[in-house]
Amino acid sequence: MLTIYSDDHHLHHGKYELIDGQLTPCFEKPSRADMVLARAQKVKLGEVAAPREFGLAPILRVHDEGFVHFLKDAWTEWQAMGRDYDMLPFTWPNRRLRQTIPDCIDGKFGYYSFDAGVPITAGTWQAVSSSVNVALTGQAELAKGARGVFSLCRPPGHHAAADYMGGYCYFNNAAIAAQAMLDQGASRVAILDVDYHHGNGTQDIFYDRADVLFTSIHGDPRFEYPFFLGYADEKGEGVGRGFNFNYPLAAGSDWSAWSLALAAACRQIAAYAPDALIVSLGVDTFKEDPISQFKLDSPDYLRMGEVIGALGLQTLFVMEGGYAVEEIGINAINVLQGFDSVT
Ligand SMILES: NCCCNCCCCCS
Ligand SMILES: [Zn+2]
Predict the structure, then answer these.
(1) Is the CB of 321 under 6 A from ligand 1?
(2) From the alpha carbon of 20, which atom of ligand 1 is closest?
(3) Active-site residue (options: 9, 12, 63, 159)
(4) What's phi and psi for 117, nearest 5 deg?
(5) Is the pLDDT of residue 188 over 90?
């Protein structure tokens, strides 16, 4: 399987995130993508190619213009205030507060984010732009007829909505790739989000649409981040009703429970008969993941890939989460090898 990868992700390396009451060194760090790339090369998964440049247009097909320009100009504005350390938001427009955009950068950052997991640094803009190009280059390769392509994106994207970032995510790489498929003539695209956390951003972007089916298997939001989206009763709205399927699972879920949800999601995807499938590939479902509560083991990822491959769909795998850095490469590439093993 072809891998699309850019070294530009090293330009984004936040120092701290606010998690569980403490400023903690970021779990979302450059070594994650390095380990996945190393594993792909070690097992000779296939060629590794650099991304092509697609510019802002495909990003603006999904994300709000004010949000994109905030992210583009944020670091320059921050530096102009004499600040040379990472940006972090700390105030958000909660219920009954004005949904207005302040002039002050701290206010704007709060308006365009939903948690304190999105440090902005000098290299963040370049890194997130390249991560989008990695997804779009993978989509372009799939459009040429490839059965499966791996976009090794970093930073991840599935928590980012049209006009807010969060959960280590800035631009929604998978959503941008899905929109590009539709803009190039696809009628229906299915997204399967296998990350441990609900893809709240991806769901939100396509919630009122029937041309993208969103399915997600994740930690039950009653106890797990992102807490405020990802419940089973979220089925879509308007013409989008019936094209959103959430499979929240209890803490401690292992392959036996997780695979039943995967089978249910695959039934929905098969019935939808999409032109292509995008998998938001997070492997923080791993039993040793430092911030997650599922119990999948490395061999389970081979089976996951086999089940996805059995759908017989052209599939773009877009890297999302996974924070057990020593095993992230084995687990992510196992999915792709499992997929490739299905002829
Ligand atoms: N106590 C856990 C807090 C998690 N905070 C953000 C997690 C983002 C995952 C991205 S895949
Ligand atoms: Zn996650």
Answers:
(1) yes
(2) 1
(3) 159
(4) -105, 20
(5) yes
Q: What is the mean pLDDT of residues 231-248?
A: 98
Structure tokens at 330: 């084995």
The residue to which tokens 């606010």 are assigned: 18
Query: Closest Cα to residue 174, out of 218, 144, 127, 206?
Result: 206
What does the pLDDT read at residue 343?
Answer: 84
pLDDT digits (tens, 9 = 90+) for 127-151: 999 999 999 999 999 999 999 999 9
- Ligand 1 mean position to 167 CA, how many Å? 6
The residues facing 246 across adjacent strands are 216
CA 196 to CA 217: how far, in whole Å? 7
The residue nearest atom 2 of ligand 1, judged by CA position, is 291
Contact partners, residue 97, CB within 8 Å, separation at least 6: none
- What mean pLDDT do residues 118-125 have? 98
Angle, CA 304 vertex, CA 302 and CA 307 arms, to 5° = 110
Instruction: Answer yes or no: is the C-beta of 168 below 6 A from any ligand 1 atom.
Output: yes
Atom nearest to 322 CA in ligand 1? 11
φ, ψ of residue 120 in degrees (nearest 5): -110, 130
Q: How far apart are CA 66 and CA 64, in angstroms?
A: 6
Please name the amino acid found at residue 265. Answer: A
Active site residue 9: no
Contact by Cβ (8 Å): 61, 77: no
Ligand nearest to the CA of 197: 2
φ/ψ of residue 30, rounded to 5: -55, -35
Q: Which residue has the tokens 């902005």?
A: 120
Terminus-to-terminus CA distance in the chain, angstroms?
13
Three-class HEC string of 288-332: CCCCCCCCECHHHHHHHHHHHHCCCCCEEEEECCCCCHHHHHHHH
Tell me the pLDDT tens digit for each residue of 30-45: 999 999 999 999 999 9
Atom 7 of ligand 1: nearest residue by CA position: 167
Gap between the Cα atoms of 170 and 165, Å rounded: 5
